[in-house]
Design brief:
By secondary structure, this protein is α+β, with helices and mostly antiparallel strands. It folds into two domains: 96 residues, no CATH class; 65 residues, no CATH class. Helix content is 35%, strand content 17%. The protein contains six helices and seven strands, in the order ββαβαααβββαβα. The strands form three sheets. A three-stranded antiparallel beta sheet has the order 5-4-6. Strands 1-2 form a two-stranded antiparallel sheet. A hairpin with an 8-residue loop joins strand 1 and strand 2.
């Protein structure tokens, strides 16, 4: 877009930083396009892009296909980073304080790997489980660890479509 940076009538072409491309919901749910992947401790999007696509510069494909807009807070932290995050967010020594209480939901699934069958409740409920700040944050990290990877055979088409949308 043309913008007068100095206000002197001398316009310069600048990238439109407000333009954003979003993956269509129908494509995101297309199971034949994606493989499930568990991010290992310390693994970065660039590492995965290099391993899968042979180019670390394609890390943006991994972030975009997983709707990650903030790679520092929506990507799994290393153990030292998680500890620092806990201390920063909750205060040193408060990592094991109560975050919330929960019980299994009364209808529907009564167990799940991702704790989606649990509902928050008050402390005075029967058979309540105490969830610490640490446990809550570790659960979030486990969610971030589970990503989808675009099958390499669709990569070229994906990149071409993205570039055409971005150029407008």
């Amino acid at each position: 877009m043309a913008y007068d940076v100095a206000g002197d009538g001398n316009y310069k072409l600048l990238p439109n930083i407000l333009r954003r491309v979003k993956l269509r919901a129908g494509i995101r749910s297309g199971s034949f396009l994606f493989d499930s992947y568990d991010v290992t401790n310390g693994e970065r999007p660039e590492d995965i892009a290099f391993k899968l696509y042979g180019d670390p510069e394609l890390h943006w494909v991994i972030l975009m296909t997983n709707n990650i807009t903030d790679r520092f807070y929506q990507w799994p932290l290393t153990q030292p980073q998680l500890q620092a995050h806990l201390e920063d967010k909750y205060g040193a020594g408060s990592e094991d304080d109560v975050h919330h209480y929960e019980i299994p939901q009364s209808s529907g699934p009564t167990s799940s790997r991702d704790f989606s069958h649990m509902v928050e409740c008050n402390a005075d409920e029967d058979n309540v489980s105490i969830i610490s700040n640490r446990e809550y944050e570790e659960r979030k990290q486990d969610e971030y660890r589970q990503i989808k990877l675009l099958d390499p055979q669709f990569l070229e088409t994906f990149v071409e479509e993205f570039e055409s949308l971005i150029k407008g």
